[in-house]
Amino acid sequence: MTVKAARRAWLTDLPVLLVAVVWGSSYLAAKEVTTAQTVLAVLVLRFGVVLPVLVGTGWRKLRALDGAQLRGAGVLGLILSGIFLLETYGVVHTSATNAGLIISLTMIFTPLAESRITGRRPSRSFLAAAGLSVLGVLLLTQGAGFTAPSLGDLLMLGAAVARTVHVLAMSRMRSVQGADSLSMTTVQLGGAVAVFAVLSTLPGTGSTTWAAAAELDTGDWLWLLYLSVFCTLFAFFVQMWAVRRTSPSRVSLLLGTEPVWAAVVGVTLAGDRPGWLGLLGALLVLAGTAWGRSAAAPRRTSVVEPAEPDGADTGLEPAGRS
């Protein structure tokens, strides 16, 4: 890889890594502001707070989206709503340790699903790097021990699968390629708000949006704004931007450092003490991510080949190659 290409890769990777940081902190934020009875209400508020700003800022480009792009963004919005429903209910019904461990399986599901779709298999180096990261996550969460899967654990597993589907859909749906990222994000979030708002009106789904909003204090609103602006708007805008410039596997591997940042937030803000195993696990996850970035980098050959659309790098090798 040339110096220019390496610099470009880092400029793409760093915002994705920052997304992992804010997502790692989102477990604490969600636990602070959400209960089992207010999940849907909080999700409506979390997404609804940023929508007016998005619509006002990007109205001209939003109107320029054609029917196919709107339908594609709508599909992505449905997937996005599923991710947040599964994650939020999951976090409420399981521990942050289990949530961080299970959701990190996205970095395994993504390259496996990508290889299934493309007919190519991940390189041995990429698989080894992913394995090292998973081992790090296991060590990171070993201190809390393991229990039989709970409802929350199963919901987090579903969220990991949904995250994989979302990343792959963004990179492969032709209808959304070339569309303005901000407009696409706006439609996705609008679709998710609609799903949450409809579900919140059904009997037995918990507090209404207005009732939950009236019970939030200043601290709750600060957590909610953090979830809205950083963990929602910023995170998914960067993810959509980055997946067009690199591979879904590479994005997923960087986002796989999320449990490390969740541990950092837990130690600094919640007083958690991971111990030596946890520290070793954090280092292994970071090492695995760095190795995976290198393994996912495109190989240079003497033959000039056509570039992938939007400069994308698949991070995969054809079947039969080592």
From TrEMBL:
The keyword Cell membrane belongs to this UniProt entry's keyword annotation: yes
GO CC terms in record: plasma membrane
Lineage of source species: Bacteria, Bacillati, Actinomycetota, Actinomycetes, Kitasatosporales
Residue intervals of the EamA domain: 14-141, 151-290
Bilayer topology term: Multi-pass membrane protein
Keywords: Cell membrane, Membrane, Transmembrane, Transmembrane helix
Location within or outside the cell: Cell membrane
Main location, first listed in the record: membrane
Transmembrane segments: 12-30, 36-56, 68-86, 92-113, 125-145, 221-241, 276-292
Family under the similarity heading: Belongs to the EamA transporter family.
Superkingdom of source: Bacteria
Gene3D superfamilies for this protein: 1.10.3730.20
Protein's UniProt name: Permease
Chain residue ranges for the region called Disordered: 299-322
